[in-house]
Design a protein that fits this description.
five-stranded parallel β-sheet; eight-stranded mixed β-sheet; Spore Coat Polysaccharide Biosynthesis Protein SpsA, Chain A; 2 domains; 20% helix; elongated; UDP N-Acetylglucosamine Acyltransferase, domain 1
């Protein structure tokens, strides 16, 4: 089975962090967001993922290296495609046309989800993952009858369904999907925002009598903005196994769970947590950190940070306010 992950978007609402790191590569209590997505499939499906295809923007070779390394850790072969112009979700998936063969899963790398149990893929031409929502007018939704999807509606103005499409799709025949994607391109069929929409290609499959089945998720977390990144990281921390610390590891420090503390991090005379996610190689001294994300090699001294994010190798001194700074930055008093 192939896993196809479109991730060419710039993630502008996560700036300054997405200026240097694509959103799917940002950390979520340790692992990258995209790594957690892949892990969900590897542990939830009864089929082995043999290939991973990534659809990228202009992120540079370092991103390819990180994704190749991750794919190989999961025993999969990586492939890379590029979306040079943002022309919509259908266009993005079609950029990976050579990989759209056999069984494929398409998963957009901007949300994290938790499966609602084992997923039965047998006998279906497609399986669409859905989540019940309070306000379906904000989403594309699926209309279901007798456990089969019979219709898709983009941001309905009338109450036709409260089951939102979360951006994860299984197709038994990737070639059949690619044919419909190409049809949209060849005939310039555009939808929302004058873009090529994946929903239109899927709807064409439905009209061609493809059998669509729904699969549910228990949790669907957004990572589109900095507040969402913070709150979703807190949700992940709530459900994962707590780390265990020894007093001598962090002298004079109180750790309030749940937290994540990365490798080779030095913490002294501080209060950490709850809901602090601290990357590898950080240094924290004489500070209080809660509801915050520190990326790798950040240095925090004599500061109180709440609802804050600090970039890679950035330095914060004598700061007592909410801050959001990118990589290799410095804020506060000079030592």
């Amino acid at each position: 089975m192939k896993l196809i992950i479109p991730m060419a978007g710039r993630g502008t609402r996560l700036r300054p962090h997405s200026l240097t790191t694509p959103k799917p590569l940002l950390p979520v209590a340790g692992p990258m967001l995209i790594e957690r997505i892949v892990y969900t499939f590897v542990t939830s499906l009864d089929r082995k993922i043999t290939d991973m295809a990534f659809i990228l923007g202009d992120f540079g070779k370092e991103v390819e290296f990180q994704l190749s390394e991750m794919a190989q850790r999961f025993g999969a072969k990586p492939a890379f495609y590029y979306q040079d112009e943002a022309l919509g979700t259908a266009h993005a998936v079609n950029c990976a046309a050579p990989s759209l063969t056999g069984e494929v899963i398409v998963a957009f790398a901007d949300t994290l989800f938790r499966m609602g149990g084992p997923v039965d893929l047998e006998g279906a031409d497609s399986v669409i993952w859905l989540m019940k929502v309070d306000d379906p007018t904000r989403f594309g939704v699926a209309v279901i009858e007798n456990n089969r999807i019979i219709r898709f509606v983009e941001k309905p103005t009338e109450p036709v369904s409260d089951m939102a499409i979360i951006g994860v799709y299984y197709f038994r025949e990737g070639e059949r999907l690619q044919k419909e994607l190409q049809y949209l391109m060849d005939n310039d069929i555009r939808g929302h925002k004058n873009e090529f929409d994946l929903t239109d290609a899927i709807d064409r499959l439905l009209q061609d009598n493809a059998m669509f089945r729904a699969a549910g998720v228990d949790e669907w977390l957004d990572f589109g903005t900095i507040p969402a990144w913070l709150s979703s990281t807190a949700s992940v921390l709530d459900r994962q196994e707590p780390q265990k610390y020894r007093e001598k590891d962090f002298p004079g420090t109180r750790i309030i769970s749940p937290c994540h503390i990365g490798k080779n991090t030095r913490i002294t005379d501080s209060v950490i947590g709850p809901y602090a996610s601290i990357g590898d190689g950080c240094t924290v001294n004489g500070s209080k950190i809660r509801n915050s994300i520190l990326r790798d090699h950040a240095v925090i001294e004599d500061s109180h940070l709440d609802n804050s994010t600090v970039g890679v190798s950035s330095i914060v001194r004598s700061c007592r306010q909410e801050i959001h700074i990118g990589d290799h930055a410095a804020i506060g008093a000079t030592p």
